[in-house]
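Objective 1b: paired records.
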Amino acid sequence: MNLNNPKLYHRALIGSLLLGGSALAAQNTLAAEIAIACGPGDASDYCPIAAQAWAEKTGNTVQVVSTPNSATEKLSLYQQLLGSQSSDIDVMLIDIVWPGMLDDHLVDLAEHLPEDATDGFFPALVDNNTVEGRLVAMPWFTDAGLLYYRKDLLEKYGHEVPETWQQLTETATEIQAAEREAGNDDFWGFSFQGRAYEGLTCNALEWVASHGGGTIVDDQGEVTIDNPRAAAALDLAASWVGTISPEGALNHTEEETRGIFQSGNALFLRNWPYVWALANGEGSEVAAKIGMAPLPHGPEGESKATLGGWNLAVSRYSEHPELAADLVAFITSREQQKAHAIQMGMNPTIEALYQDEEVLASNPSMSELYETLTNGVPRPATVTGDSYARVSNAFFNRTHQVLSGDLDGASAVQQLGRELERLGRRGW
């Protein structure tokens, strides 16, 4: 390996996988090579398939660069490459909360794509990817928080799916007690992600927003978290720990909570759409016994689900921005999103696909997701930009203190409000 060639050295370091185009492309001296950072080894496994289809269609060559599974490590790699203005990667898969952090290094796709390029996509996702009027990423697949429930147990004990958090609390308390009396001492009423990490930001934003307590920081950059409804939401959540939720919830992420629910030891679960197929799969204790619904809401709010998902962006340092943007448009097109949904079960970002007969035949639960995604609430990542990581860190740490019993809701939102105001004054 020639260490004097930084491009070769960089690619060797991050472990890349070459996907060749067609034989015609190999002979075409005008063909370009586009490097895309996505998969394999995570939810984006369809990305190399779609990228290869584009290569064969256009006569170009695509190099798929493997990136770490950990979102934190993936972001660090991107920041390193972009910070050095490396042209090694043309297209990158970015998390929904990264556009505001990376926008200075990303191409405005509106300059390379048709005016109608975002027509039909969920507006909230397009807005999330638009920073100061620049479209820095196209939405590829999305997620939103959902409530999973044991429909057999609700029927057994004569309860409906709860519409409010208070109803969930009361139903979970009653059925948990009954199931334990029947001999299942490991049974819990509600399983959620309570570790001090980004997942808790997602959970707590749903509690606060669904109580009418705002979104931590609003679209204008104003800090809104210090209010009684937000405090009440956090206090209610704290009441679950050790009662209808295990003490271990304070260290649970998505997979721990799925394990509890899928083993038959929880009535309710808050998690992402990926759980549906797994919980209904072979070997699951709850297969065919579960339902999926929008999350509950507070007494003065409506159901809110935190939006998740991944997007495709083009580096400002790409030597072929026009071709890179064309690859992004191809992968996020209706045809490719439909195939992604059918083959991988991922949730499209184009609204019409939630009524597509073939998509619904492959995964009937898709139709139930539509309203949840339409009303989804984004984290305040775009408006806070580079500061989002600190905003989220402060929010989930204060929330974790409430869940742990170290702070009450009112004190937590007051302290958090002051902390975020100081951060905001220095400029988001």
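Objective 1b, second protein:
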Amino acid sequence: MRTRGRLLGLRVVIFNHDEARQIYSSGFYGKPLGIPKPRDSDFDAPLELSLVEALYLLEKGVLEVVDEEDKPVSIEELIARGEKSIPKFRAIYKVYRELRERGYIVRSGLKFGADFAVYQRGPGLEHAPYLVHVLDVGENIDPLEIVRAGRLSHSVRKAFILALVGPGDSPTRYIMFRWSKL
């Protein structure tokens, strides 16, 4: 039996607490409502998933997403909702999926000014060693943005990575920046 989540705006909420704990503990997916920094999966609260997380779990067959009228939401419908509301949704999702498939724990990096904070073991077990910013290949970026992102990531002791997403099935290129003292 798949876990059921309800699509509410740009989030999918799992209201069943047992299923919420199971999804969270399977890879640190989502955020338990009302619990800012859960230490483990021992919580009694609904779980809120981003569209990116929900799409990944839907594609994996772990999650069933329904709308407010209990009608199933397809992968295509979830992608369309994401594309309509989130700039570069497909590129962001591609990087999320690639990093998850490589075994990383991928969380929002918004508080660091990045698309993702990436963990090797998980939040609460370590600090995220990487911040990832997603760009389409050919997209212009101001060099000052790179310096700002690099300085911020350095100040919070994280490596700054640009993920350059090409068209179609072309591979994503990852560029890691390191500060050096001359």
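Residues 39 and 167 are 39 Å apart (CA to CA). The chain has two domains: 1-86, 88-182.
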